[in-house]
Design a protein that fits this description.
Blueprint (H helix, E strand, L loop, with lengths): L1 E5 L8 H15 L3 E7 L6 H7 L6 E3 L6 H15 L3 E4 L5 H11 L5 E6 L4 H10 L5 E4 L2 H9 L8 E3 L20 E6 L12 H10 L4 E6 L5 H7 L1 H5 L3 E5 L3 H7 L6 E4 L8 H8 L3 E5 L17 E3 L4 H9 L4 H18 L2 H17 L17 H6 L1 H11 L8 H4 L9 H15 L7
Parallel strand pairs: 1-2, 1-4, 2-3, 4-5, 5-6, 6-7, 8-9, 8-11, 9-10, 11-12, 12-13
Length: 441
């Protein structure tokens, strides 16, 4: 089976990148012919990405003009050259109109798959806009599967589930006395909307009020770092908080996983997270918000595989963390989490789920018809005067090129940007749906 994966190259750290870096070699070892292509430009750069993930052997995908038409042409040319049986899109929305164009030409006959890694309105809007040309969705989270159908309008028979996977070494108990100093870790992107990183100062304040000695390691970076450093200054000065900054998988294994009593998760929503499965695999306990995405997934079971608290409630989170000072409870959670990951989220289990899902996509009936490309706004005056295609022809003839201010503009993840009100409405609706799988909800 020939498989093409299209993924961004602007981001060298994160759960999606780790997932892809683990999945592709496994698929190749199983006999699949997998090609990975990533954009090469000003913000998305093939060179650093290829250096960070050499096992992927990623090919560069270039867009000389920087326009949307240029992106579609670049992807269409790749599809027509390789004509893979399956194409997996990883947050590059221009795949969908490009595939429709190549199908109409009769030069691409494969199936198109959206891999869904987020609970954000823009991706479900993309499914409604481009769904007539998307053969299947593969999501890493049970709630995301439901939303692909209910929000994205995709036939439930075309929505498949395949979780993230992590290496699982033999179980090892957390070291050190939690009653003396409780060693905690927080790992992720330092931002507020999803990760709610600004919940950490109130959480530490509540722990301090309980008289609990804590050491917190923070691994990650992002826009909220300066403000967070200011908020955490008293704990940093006393050596209770340490910053690790960007941390790759090797350093996470050396400095975080297996070297703390618990991982703290403060997120509003997740489709994993991979860091939770990594922490559990290392023997750490997980103390987490009841984030949207945890209910239907059914992995974080309070008092069995994790300790849970209401999202944004620092006092409740501190109360759950205080319980970890009981060595028997800490060991029980450690064993329970490790067993969960070994059974459901190991690399082997994940790889088998993805192989099975890819096979199911090939077995689906072909989509009816081949709809035209959805209309899109002109890129500039040439498009307004001549239309997208002739405007692009002249743009290339003249050597004109758009310069983009961000990675998301250069090669967009999605066709739009969800506003705050839309995201809040989605999160509320998704939370109500997610509680159907949470008997405590």
């Amino acid at each position: 089976m020939k498989v093409l994966v299209l993924a961004p190259s602007a981001y060298l750290l994160g759960g999606v990148q780790d997932w892809l870096a683990n999945l592709v070699p496994g698929l190749r070892a199983g006999g699949l012919e997998v090609t990975v292509a990533v954009p090469d430009g000003d913000h998305h750069r093939h060179g650093p990405y290829a250096q960070a993930y050499p096992a992927l052997e990623a090919q560069p995908l270039t867009n000389p003009s920087g326009s949307a038409e240029g992106r579609i042409r670049a992807i269409a040319a790749l599809l027509e050259r390789l004509n893979p049986q399956l194409v997996l899109g990883v947050n590059l929305v221009d795949l969908y109109p490009a595939a429709q164009r190549s199908r109409r030409r009769g030069r691409f006959h494969g199936r198109v798959v959206m891999t869904l890694h987020a609970l954000q309105t823009e991706y479900f809007d993309d499914l409604r806009r481009h769904g007539a040309g998307i053969d299947a969705v593969i999501a890493t989270n049970r709630l995301a599967c439901r939303l692909a159908s209910e929000r994205g309008g995709i036939d439930p028979a075309r929505v498949l589930y395949a979780p993230y996977g992590v290496p699982v070494p033999p179980w090892q108990a957390p070291s050190g006395d939690p009653a003396a100093t409780l060693r905690l870790a927080w790992v992720g992107r330092l931002e507020q909307a999803q990760k709610r990183v600004n919940d950490l100062p109130p959480l530490l304040t509540a722990l301090q009020a309980l008289g609990i000695d804590v050491q917190l390691s923070i691994a990650g970076d992002g826009d909220e770092r300066p403000a967070l450093e200011t908020s955490l200054a008293p704990w940093i000065a006393r050596g209770r908080v340490r910053w690790l900054g960007h941390v790759d998988q090797c350093r996470l294994a050396e400095q975080i996983f297996g070297h703390h009593h618990a991982l703290v998760i403060t997120s509003a929503w997740e489709t994993g997270p991979i860091v939770a499965w990594q922490a559990m695999a290392s023997g750490m306990a997980v103390v987490s918000s009841r984030y949207v995405g945890s209910g239907l997934e059914g992995a974080l079971e309070h008092d069995a595989t994790a300790l849970l608290f209401p999202c944004g409630d620092g006092a409740a989170g501190a109360a759950q963390l205080a319980r970890l000072r009981q060595p028997a409870l800490l060991e029980r959670l450690s064993r329970g989490g490790h067993a969960l990951v070994a059974g459901r989220y190991s690399q082997g289990a994940s790889l088998e789920a993805w192989r099975r899902a890819l096979g199911q996509v090939l077995a689906l009936a072909p989509l009816p018809g081949n709809p035209p490309e959805p209309p899109r706004a002109p890129a500039g005056r040439l498009d307004r005067w001549l239309g997208h295609r002739r405007g692009e022809d002249l743009r290339r003839l003249l050597g004109q090129r758009f310069r983009h201010a961000s990675a998301g503009s250069e090669w967009p993840h999605s066709g739009g940007e969800g506003d705050g009100a839309a995201e809040r409405e989605l999160l509320a609706a998704a939370g109500r749906l997610d509680h159907l799988g949470d008997p405590r909800g």
